[in-house]
Amino acid sequence: MRPGFVPALGTPLDKDGNLVEKSLRKHVGDQIAAGAVGLLCLGSMGIEAFIRDDVYPSVALTALDEAAGRVPVFIGAMDTSLARVKKRIAPLEDSDAAGFVFTAPFYSPATREQMMNFFKGCAALTDHKILLYDLPVVTQSKITPAMVLELIKTVPNFIGIKSADLVMFRNLKRNPDVPEDFITVYSGLDSFDVAYRSGIDNCLDGMLSCTPKNTSRMFKALEKKDYGTAAKCLDNITSLRDCFIKNDLMPSFTHSMNLLGYEGDFAQDYMSPITEKAKENVKLEMIRIGEIKG
After folding, report:
1. What is the DSSP letter of 2?
2. β-bridge partners, 204
3. What is the DSSP string of 81-106?
4. Potential cystine with 256: which of 155, 162, 170, 210 (Cβ 3.0-4.6 Å)?
């Protein structure tokens, strides 16, 4: 995958939990127009773990159809068991997805052996490529460099990992057993400009999906080695994220997406509606960082 940003797309749903297809298509098209080099559909920000089983394939297939091969589309398939993963990905086996993305099984911590059994089992369920998402804050289980190296050697369709572990990436990039085309996508948003200067040139995060102007500007600046401008853009993106956190993360994300012109609810269905004060706070921050006009 060429250097650049890979937004974790939001998933717009109506009040009954069904996909708002028009909204997702616009979202995909706008991200590609902004310069995205790939897309993650149904990641954490895309509330993959929370949507209905019957809605899941329609989200993935809509994103793939709208992307139409312009950029690779990776599909999140995180779950708690191999049986549930199989049910998720089976309808997509004939699709042109660039790969399925898996975290460690969540809900309860897993041992190293259990994690390896899970990852190898996931890989055996599909002819597609697979990538891992190192997300210990959610899964309670940390993927290590040694695990990655073992999977590279034993799982032919294992092609990459997303992680905020810069030390892991440093070790992998220096290891001769790691293929040159092995994908390392950085999810440590706060330090991405520093990571970029050390050779980590792909960033994947949900905040990129609601900050296309700042994200595009940041990567253009990085390509020109204008690190001051890049840092300011990254500060804008993380500032908006911090605003979301202060005002209830996912409802705030929904409001930001609505302000950008994407219909639907992007939050879990048990979330409380965003308050009017929080709406105003999010809007003002979106205006301040230049994502929308005042």
Report:
1. -
2. 6
3. SHHHHHHHHGGGTTS--SEEEE----
4. 210
Q: Is position 243 within any domain? A: no
259 domain-assigned: no
* CA pair distance 93, 96, nearest whole angstrom: 8
Token pair for 80: 């708690």
pTM of the model: 0.96
Q: Is the pLDDT of residue 128 over 90?
A: yes
Could you give the residue ranges of the DSSP H alpha helices within the chain? Answer: 21-34, 56-67, 82-89, 112-124, 136-139, 145-154, 166-174, 192-197, 212-223, 227-246, 249-259, 276-288
The reply to whether 35 falls in a domain is: yes
CATH number of residue 160's parent domain: 3.20.20.70
pLDDT in tens, 70-127: 999 999 999 999 999 999 999 999 999 999 999 999 989 999 999 999 999 999 999 9
Q: pLDDT category, 1, cuts 50, 70, 90?
A: confident
The pLDDT > 90 percentage for the chain reads 97
As for how many domains the chain has, the answer is: 1
Which percentage of the chain shows pLDDT scores above 70? Answer: 100
Give which of 23, 36, 44, 130 is closest to 82, Cα–Cα: 130
197-210 confidence digits (pLDDT tens): 988 999 999 999 99
Cα dihedral 291, 165, 118, 2, rounded to 10, equals: 60
Burial class (CB in 10 A: 0-12, 13-18, 19+), 82: middle
Q: Which of 30, 107, 120, 112 is nearest to 67 (CA)?
A: 30
Q: Are 41 and 96 in contact (CB under 8 A)?
A: no
